[in-house]
Amino acid sequence: LRSLPEELINETPEFKCLQSRYTALVNESVHLRHQLTDARELVKCTKTIYDHHFEKIEQEEFENQRKLVANIEQVVADLAEARRDYDLLQVEYEKVLIANQQSVPIAREMRSLINHLQAQCKLYNLEASRCKKQCKELEEELTKLKAKQETIISNGLNTQISVTISELTSASSIGTTNQQQSPSIKDETTNSFSTSTSTIIKNEPIQKEESTEGNDDSRLGENSLLDFGDVTEGDLDDSSTSNTLSRLSSNSMTTEDKDTELRTLKSENKKLSDMVKEYKILLTMY
Asked: How far apart are CA 218 and CA 122, in angstroms?
């Protein structure tokens, strides 16, 4: 082979095969080098990316750790504050519990007092209604008695006037027959007639006014009628005057009793209404 010329060697098929293989290997090595450089560049890129990513992760971890520490400190502070609040609430709860335990008997007493006051108010209302009913009945009875008294007084006055007129007419007839013997008797009879008629005229409107007024006026009217009976007693018959006076005194006593009873009932009704008002004020206050 060394003695052969290069041209012959180059033209041989073995050389050409080797040359083609060599070129293929060279090309493949170049390609592999290119791939190696690409791989190195890729490794560098990935390494830089990884380094950046790792740094970013470290920064995030640091931030997270810092935030975690801050959160832990905040949670610890909140927990301490919550413990303080819990202690304060526990103390306040104990105080409220003690106050409630102390206020339970007070509340019971207040409930019992309110129930007692309500029962008393009901009783006083019933008593007031009963007193009002009694007052109405007594007022009706008093009006009836006053009407009866007026009729009795008017009848008594009419009888007294008729008796006095008849006696005076008889006395005047006797006086005319005995005019020369007893002129002074005629004057006395005329004077007594004038005084009796004047007292009758005066007492009639007084009795009407006194029957419509209160209790004291009715007593005054009855006293005036009794005085009138005393004045004309010498002229009237003893039997008629005693009957009229007994009827008037009995009527006056009944009316006086009714008036006093009505006054007492009115005063009791007023007291009961005042007590009901006081108990209502107490109930509203409680």
From this structure: 38
Angle at 102 between CA 96 and CA 106, to 5 degrees: 125
Distances (CA, A) of 40 to 34, 47, 132, 284: 10, 10, 122, 98
Return the pLDDT at 66.
94
**Tokens 């006797």, located at residue:** 174
255, with CB counted inside 10 A (0-12, 13-18, 19+), is buried
Q: How far is Cα 202 from Cα 188, in angstroms, rounded to an integer? A: 21
DSSP three-state, residue 213: coil
Both structure tokens of 147: 């009407």
- Span 121-178, pLDDT tens digits: 888 888 888 888 887 888 888 788 888 777 877 776 667 666 666 665 665 555 455 4
Q: What is the enclosing helix (H) or strand (E) of 234? A: none
How far apart CA 209 and CA 220 sit, in angstroms, is: 11
Name the CA radius of gyration of the chain, rounded. Answer: 68
What is this structure's pTM?
A: 0.32
The number of CA neighbours under 13 Å toward the Cβ of 55 is 5
Count other C-beta atoms under 10 Å from residue 154's C-beta: 13
How is residue 1 annotated by DSSP? Answer: -
Buried b (16+ CB within 10 A) or exposed e, 96-124: eeeeeeeeeeeeeeeeeeeeebeeebeeb
Residue with tokens 């052969």: 4
C-beta contacts of 148-152 below 8 A and 24+ residues apart? 148/251, 149/211, 149/218, 149/251, 149/252, 149/255, 150/207, 150/208, 150/211, 152/247, 152/248, 152/251
How many angstroms separate the CA atoms of 148 and 73, rounded?
104
Residue-wise pLDDT for 7-47, tens only, equals 777 777 887 888 888 999 999 999 999 999 999 999 999 99
